[in-house]
């Protein structure tokens, strides 16, 4: 699993880095996004709905995203 560390970066950078990493994956693969920006969770959930990817918060700064 690829880990993207976006801590210290503000919106929209964590979502952009996530989207770029997802382009390299095949369906079923996942990444872990680390972000301390409070806007990450709502932005990531909206992005997941728009792109049909599964997003799950693992903690306040850890997000698991699976490509569908």
Structure write-up:
The protein has 68 residues and is an alpha+beta fold. The protein has one domain (2-66): TusA-like domain (Translation Initiation Factor IF3, 2-Layer Sandwich), CATH 3.30.110. The chain contains two helices and four strands. Strand 1, helix 1 and strand 2 form a beta-alpha-beta unit. The model has no long low-confidence stretch (mean pLDDT 96).
Ordered list of secondary-structure elements with their pairings:
Blueprint: E1 2-5, H1 13-22, E2 30-34, H2 40-51, E3 54-57, E4 62-66
Which labels suit this protein?
2 helices; 4 strands; 68 residues; single chain; four-stranded mixed sheet; alpha+beta; Translation Initiation Factor IF3
Kindly report the name of the CATH homologous superfamily.
TusA-like domain
CATH class: Alpha Beta
Decide which structural class fits the backbone: alpha+beta
What is the CATH T-level topology? Translation Initiation Factor IF3
Poorly predicted runs are none
Number of strands: 4
Tally of structural domains: 1
**What's the overall geometry?**
globular
The main sheet comes to:
4 strands, mixed
Strand content is 25-35%
Figure out the total of helices: 2
First and last CA, distance: 15 Å
The pLDDT mean sits at 96
